C-alpha cells in the first residue's frame, strides 16, 4: 500500500494549512483513501492510499499548492485497519516517515522510500521529481488553460472561455508541457504499481 506523509513548509511563519488541504484532497478524490486522512503532529498530514493512480494525483495536488514537503512510503500495512490513519502501522508508514524527513532537503520537496528497500525506488523518485519540477515552472496562464484542458474541454471551447485565440491556447498548453505530463503520468502509475507489487511479494517471502 501507499502512505503519504506531508509536512507543512515553514509552518512557524504561516497559518495551519492541514485542514484546508485535507478538505481539498477529499473534494478532488473522495474515494482515494483507505482511511480518513489525518492531521497528526500539528502541521503534518498522513494519508493511506491503496492504489497508485490516486497516490500520484495526491502527490501532484500537494506539490502544486507549494506548502508541503511530501514523503511517499510503499510497503505493508498491518490489517485489519484501525478506525483512523494515525492508529495504523506497518512498513509503509515507517518508509513514509523516512521519506518526508529526506523530502525537506530535496529541490522538489519530495522523496520516496520502500519497505523493504527496492533498487528501483531511486529511479522512480527521480522520474516523479522531474514531473514535479516541470509542473513547478508553469505560469498561472498555463495552469488556467491546462486545468480546462484536463476537464475535457476542446481547445476551441477553452479559447472561448478565456477570451483568447485557439492558437494562443495551443501555445499555452505547449509551454506548460501538458502533453508531456499526460504521457508521463500513466507510465509513473505503472511503475508505482510494480513497486507496490514487489514490496508485497517481498513481505510474503
3D structure, described in words:
With 205 residues, the protein is α+β, with helices and mostly antiparallel strands. It has 2 domains: 2-119, Alpha-Beta Plaits, CATH 3.30.70; 140-175. 54% of the residues lie in helices and 13% in strands. The chain contains 8 helices and 5 strands. A 5-stranded mixed β-sheet has the order 2-3-1-4-5. The radius of gyration is 18 Å and the shape is globular. The two termini are 17 Å apart. It comes from Cryobacterium flavum. This is DNA-binding protein.
Strand-helix topology:
Blueprint: E1 2-8, H1 18-28, E2 38-39, E3 44-49, H2 52-65, E4 68-74, H3 91-103, E5 110-114, H4 121-136, H5 140-150, H6 155-162, H7 166-175, H8 178-204
Parallel strand pairs: 4-5
Antiparallel strand pairs: 1-3, 1-4, 2-3
Features:
five-stranded mixed sheet; 5 strands; DNA-binding; alpha+beta; DNA binding; 205 residues; DNA-binding protein
- Measured by DSSP, the beta-strand proportion falls in 5-15%
Arithmetic mean pLDDT: 94
Name of the CATH class of the largest domain: Alpha Beta
Strand order of the largest sheet: 2-3-1-4-5
- Number of self-contained structural domains: 2
As a percent range, the share of helical residues equals: 40-55%
Rg measurement, Å:
18 Å
The biggest sheet amounts to: 5 strands, mixed
Low-confidence stretches: none
Total strand segments: 5
Number of helices: 8
Distance between the termini: 17 Å
Amino acid at each position: 500500500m501507499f502512505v503519504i506523509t506531508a509536512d507543512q513548509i515553514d509552518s512557524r511563519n504561516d497559518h495551519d494549512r492541514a485542514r484546508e488541504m485535507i478538505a481539498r484532497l477529499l473534494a478532488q478524490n473522495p474515494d482515494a483513501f483507505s482511511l480518513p486522512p489525518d492531521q497528526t503532529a500539528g502541521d503534518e498530514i498522513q494519508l493511506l492510499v491503496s492504489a497508485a493512480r490516486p497516490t500520484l494525483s495526491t502527490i501532484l495536488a500537494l506539490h502544486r499548492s507549494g506548502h508541503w514537503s511530501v514523503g511517499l512510503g510503499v510497503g505493508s500495512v498491518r490489517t485489519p485497519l484501525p478506525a483512523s490513519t494515525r492508529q495504523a502501522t506497518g512498513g509503509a508508514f515507517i518508509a513514509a516517515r523516512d521519506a518526508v524527513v529526506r523530502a525537506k532537503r530535496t529541490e522538489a520537496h519530495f522523496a520516496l522510500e520502500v519497505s523493504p528497500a527496492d533498487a528501483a525506488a531511486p529511479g522512480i523518485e527521480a522520474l516523479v521529481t522531474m514531473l514535479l519540477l516541470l509542473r513547478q515552472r508553469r505560469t498561472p496562464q498555463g495552469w488556467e488553460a491546462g486545468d480546462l484542458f484536463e476537464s475535457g474541454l476542446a481547445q476551441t471551447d477553452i479559447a472561448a472561455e478565456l477570451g483568447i485565440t485557439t492558437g494562443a491556447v495551443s501555445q499555452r498548453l505547449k509551454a506548460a508541457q501538458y502533453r508531456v505530463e499526460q504521457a508521463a503520468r500513466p507510465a509513473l502509475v505503472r511503475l508505482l504499481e510494480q513497486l507496490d507489487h514487489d514490496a508485497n511479494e517481498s513481505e510474503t517471502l
